[in-house]
Known about the structure:
The chain contains seven helices and seven strands. It has helices at residues 12-23, 35-42, 58-72, 96-123, 147-166, 185-196, 207-219; strands at residues 3-7, 27-32, 48-52, 77-80, 129-134, 172-180, 228-232. A seven-stranded parallel sheet has the order 3-2-1-4-5-6-7, with helices on both faces. α1 (12-23) packs across α7, α3 (58-72) runs parallel beside α4 and α4 runs parallel beside α5. It starts with a strand and ends in a 10-residue tail after the last strand. The relative contact order is 0.14.
Amino acid sequence: xxxxxxxxxxxxxxxxxxxxxxxxxxxxxxxxxxxxxxxxxxxxxxxxxxxxxxxxxxxxxxxxxxxxxxxxxxxxxxxxxxxxxxxxxxxxxxxxxxxxxxxxxxxxxxxxxxxxxxxxxxxxxxxxxxxxxxxxxxxxxxxxxxxxxxxxxxxxxxxxxxxxxxxxxxxxxxxxxxxxxxxxxxxxxxxxxxxxxxxxxxxxxxxxxxxxxxxxxxxxxxxxxxxxxxxxxxxxxxxxxx
Length: 242
């Protein structure tokens, strides 16, 4: 039975992905700040482990990886998913605190998680594993007013490419999934904003489709890798937006 650590596992894409993996025979470590939500999910599965922590704190992530390995022996995969979308605006309207929070979660948090996972995968026997980073369509094409989120997601792409290259000698594969408008609390909040501004609602897809796509990436043998995958609501204006 394979093991995966999922960050941001208390809600949205992270929680949906955790449930998908649990239902498909994986052992799943659940990392997020909201302990009660993790414990609620873990109580329903013998193969789930609640690991409360903050991805912006390296020691929290290292402790989570260590606890998972003590419990199950190895780490086969990570879904590096935790992220935030701070208030929108043009750059002169952005509160610098929101910029720093975006960097802390969306980039430093991903770096911390990848660092801890890479070290474990390199050291374990048999060596290797897979790191899947949650990018975004904003890693390629921004929404208006999303300078914090878009900048960090472009950074995730650089992280993914470098992990993929540096992981080769150690049988560590790295890939990125760019998800467009999965129906989560975050996207529904964006739709509320669209309604308030008198704009049409965004097209959305079931979050389960995104979770299944992550599962497909994780189930591949280490001899093959999805470096980048895009899964999106069919009618969203991604191609040609602007």
